[in-house]
Amino acid sequence: MTWSSQKKRPTIIWIRVREDSMSAYFLKIILGSAFLAAALTSFLSMMTLMGKPEKKTDPAKLKKIHRAAGIFIAILLAPLIYLGARFLAQMGDAMPIRSGFHVVLAIAFIVLLILKITIVRVYRNFLKYAPALGMIIFTLAVIVFAISAGFTVVMKIF
């Protein structure tokens, strides 16, 4: 019987703890999928507003869609952070590289999201940077999703 380095308990118990969290893992995949859909909605609404030369859609409506998707993202972010912190605590020092990238990029996502919201709400002189921050935030959301949930879904299918 081998021992884990973090809590000095048998590996058999460690595997059992991970099995108990599988339902939480799939909940995180479902929440992450909804999160990615909201991020895509938010991204496309602003890309349509700022990037398309022809204005076929009402700008006020696109801004409302962007704001509603952003609020939905914030609502989904809280349980995702909680579940992610639980998984991080369970992994201890035995974290795979993929999980390490997921954590670091998720923290970068949160920091940039807070920066963008702060610029839009408080420091309006920096508003010209909001579109670039939005594109970076969306890219991070896709990468964070692909690293964990996307990988897991692909492994289950194939």
Q: What's the helix and strand layout?
A:
Elements: H1 11-20, H2 22-51, H3 59-91, H4 97-121, H5 130-157
Count of the separate structural domains: 1
Percentage of residues in strands: under 5%
Oligomer: single chain
CA radius of gyration is 19 Å
How many DSSP-defined strands?
0
The run of helices and strands is: HHHHH
Basic shape? globular
Short synopsis of the structure:
By secondary structure, the protein is an all-alpha fold. It contains five helices and no strands.
Q: How would you describe this structure in keywords?
A:
single chain, 158 residues, mainly alpha, 80% helix
Q: Can you describe what's shown?
A:
The protein is an all-alpha fold. The protein has one domain (11-157). The chain is built from five helices and no strands. The protein has helices at 11-20, 22-51, 59-91, 97-121, 130-157. The longest helix has 33 residues, at 59-91. It is globular, with a radius of gyration of 19 Å. The two termini are 32 Å apart. Residues 10-17 have low confidence and may be disordered.
